Every structure is written in C-alpha cells, then in structure tokens.
Amino acid sequence: MPLAEAAYRRLRDEIIACRLQPGQRITERALAGDFGFGVAPIRDALTRLDHDGLVRTIPRKGYQVAPLTLKAVDDLFAFWSILGPEIVKRGIVAASDEQLGQIIADFEEMERAGPAKVKAVEMQRFVEAGADLFNRLADAAGNAYLSAAYAKLSGEMLRVFTLITDADLTTPKKLWKVSDWSEVLRQRDGDGLAEKARDYINACHDHVAQTLMRWPSVMMSEVVPQRAL
C-alpha cells in the first residue's frame, strides 16, 4: 500500500475514533512524528481529509480537525435523510445476486448487535454494520456520485456516533428495530426499504440530538468528547 494511502487511512481512523478530537490543532510535522510517516505522505493525507470535510486547512498555521456543532450535526442528518433513502431504493433494485447476499449479511450483523441496553463495543458494531450496509447499497446502485457523496458523509456520521457511544449506552428500542427490514431486502422492495431507512435515520437523529443536549460543551455550540471536558 502506498505510504500516502496508509497515512490517510490511519489519520481518518484516528479522527473518526475521536482520538484526534474535534477542533484539535494539528501539524504535518507533529503527525509525522506521532504516527511514523514522512511529512510528504502526511501532507497528502491531510489534503484528502480536507476534501472529505474531516480536517480544515488554516493558512500559515497548519490544520484543525473539523469541529462539530449542533448545527453541523443537524445538517448531517438532514443530508443523510435525503441521500440515504435514495441510496437504498436504487441499490436494492440494482444489486446483483452476489451483492444482495453481502447486503443481507451486513443487515444480519446489525441484527446480532443487540437490544436496547448494550456495551459500547456492541453499539459500535451496530453503527459500523449499518454504515457497511448503506455503503454496500451505494456501490450496488452503480452511481459514482451517490457513492462519493455517501463516502464523504459516512466519515462524519461515524465520528458523531463515536462521540455519543461513551456518553449514553441506553439506546432506544426503535433504533435497534431493524428485524422488519428482512422481507423488503429479500423482495428487493425499493420503496419499502427507503421508508424504513428514513425511519431509521430519523430515530438516529432523535437519539443523537437528545444525547448531545445533555453535554456541557453543547452550551458553547461546539461538540467535543465528554472525556475532554
């Protein structure tokens, strides 16, 4: 794997996991020292992360991990509520038999993740399986613009869910209720799946909003991990 690609994946993982925290100032040289890459691969990675919306370039000062505000979170979910149903509607109809099998496997992983009260690791499994499901459906749709839009959205969404995982492990039953997706997936019912995706996205939004409103940092409009407060 090229060093620039390896650096990009490592930094993206660090940002999504909030080990590089929202709003944190970073420099090429410091990151190169911390993660064992040269400055050039780090610079290439940061350019891509800036394009992804996960990093901001600050002229003559370095970079900043993109902050999260309540408005930014609301905007993310507003975009997902438009994009997500269209992705699943197109993807389930266009999927090959092989892709459908992989999509159902992702869905079954969501089902296995657990009921209303779970450990953080189970919540993370559920979130990641959901991201894989949407990503697989985006690829199956065969539309490069949809895939690119979801790829950019998914990093930010995973970061939001990572932030709330440690804050609140009590997850509403409505959020976990995906068992009734099985029939529409197997029947390739695009409209039915789009409606269920819309309900799931709205439930996610409600849960995230309620959790964030209990954080002291929300009063300052910027969302940061509770462990950093």
UniProtKB/TrEMBL annotation:
InterPro entries registered for this protein in UniProt: GntR_C, TF_FadR/GntR_C, Tscrpt_reg_HTH_GntR, WH-like_DNA-bd_sf, WH_DNA-bd_sf
Keyword list, A-Z: DNA-binding, Transcription, Transcription regulation
Coiled-coil intervals: none
Record CDD domains: WHTH_GntR
Xref: PANTHER family: GNTR FAMILY REGULATORY PROTEIN (PTHR43537:SF45), TRANSCRIPTIONAL REGULATOR, GNTR FAMILY (PTHR43537)
Positions of the HTH gntR-type domain: 1-68
Pfam families (alphabetical): FCD (PF07729), GntR (PF00392)
Alphabetical list of Gene3D superfamilies matching this protein: GntR ligand-binding domain-like, Winged helix-like DNA-binding domain superfamily/Winged helix DNA-binding domain
Protein name: GntR family transcriptional regulator
Source domain of life: Bacteria
Keyword field contains Coiled coil: no
An example molecular function term from Gene Ontology annotations: DNA-binding transcription factor activity
